[in-house]
Amino acid sequence: MKLDEFLRLNAPDDLAALTSAIAAASLGVWESVPFKSGLLSETNPSGETQKAIDVFSNDLFVDALTSTGLVAEVASEEMEEPVVSKGSVSVAMDPLDGSSNVETNNPLGSIFGFYTRKLPASGRALAGALYVTYGTMVTLTFSFGKGVHRFVAVRDGSAMSFQLLGVNLKIPEKPEVYGFGGARADWIPPVSAFWHSLEPRGLRNRYCGTFVGDYNQVLARGGIFSYPALTKKPRGKLRVLYECAPMAYINEQAGGYASDGSGNILDIEPAGLAETAPLYIGSAGLVRELEGSISSKQRAP
Ligand code: AFP
User: Where are the domains of the chain?
Assistant: First the structure.
């Protein structure tokens, strides 16, 4: 089944149109990566050096989304302020996650949250979320609250189209893989102790340095991904609005759980657009075990 047919039958009209627009633009991002990988002098609101590909991807998605006439605003990790438009859906995005991995050809991603309220808003205001994985294949993984579904880009005559790859994806019961970001020496002690306990339990360390690529394998094989609280950065690195909440939404729809170490990521009310949170996401049992360990250490006198 092709994407537009599936969306017509299974998505609200506005989110269906936005998903189609993102799908088309994602192919433009994918094709441009080899040509747009230089460095620009600008930095993004979090002070990270922006690559041409970050700016190019951001502008491509902003144009694709605003041209539908359906978005009230588009907020992006790469922009100080949202682009305001005349529709009703508030979109928050990380247009190119993992761009520091372009030269090594690691997986890259794009993450989108479809919020029903003005931004910043908590994950409870999400009506849907989507991530693109630029890897061996280009895939769209999304949910509008009725399961997680996946499409893959395929050659379709002289063009490309997205074909159905799977419906109602669920995180496997038996966790197999784990990946933790940041430097191990900087992790808070409960994270370090938990990390060391995983390999003896038979899990395998799989970390590629791109949140979307690292999460994608957790969704497929079960396990946990984390960009944890660090001793010098207790609020971690990943942004609530653009990264943590949309991925937590999809993860929960797939039967998983995502925590900031004290509670559900989706309950965080971010005070600002670029607010970050520690992220522990994946198989519910593992994440809740680590959340309990962190909380008990924080309660200890
Ligand atoms: P870039 O988009 O700057 O490459 O950062 C990617 C990212 O935000 C996220 O995708 C990774 O999980 C995390 O950074 C990796 O951070 P470390 O390089 O500090 O492990």
Answer: 3-166, 177-299
- Tens-place pLDDT, residues 49-85: 777 889 999 999 999 999 999 999 999 999 999 999 9
DSSP string, 53-77: HHHHHHHHHHHHHHTTT-EEEEEET
For ligand 1, atom 4, the nearest C-alpha belongs to 98
With a 6 A CB cut-off, is 227 part of the ligand 1 pocket?
A: yes
* Third-level CATH fold of 177-299: D-Maltodextrin-Binding Protein; domain 2 (3.40.190)
Distances from the Cα of 129 to the Cαs of 121, 190, 240, 253, 290, in angstroms?
A: 14, 30, 13, 10, 25
Q: How confident is the model at residue 48 (pLDDT cuts 50, 70, 90)?
A: confident
For 163-187, what is each residue's pLDDT tens digit?
999 999 999 989 999 999 999 999 9
What is the atom index within ligand 1 of the atom nearest the CA of 99?
4
In angstroms, the CA 111 to CA 98 distance is 11
Asked if 168 and 254 touch (Cβ cutoff 8 Å), the reply is no
- Superfamily per CATH, domain 3-166: Fructose-1,6-Bisphosphatase, subunit A, domain 1 (3.30.540.10)
Q: How far apart are CA 266 and CA 252, in angstroms?
A: 9
Distance 237 CA to ligand 1 centre (A): 8
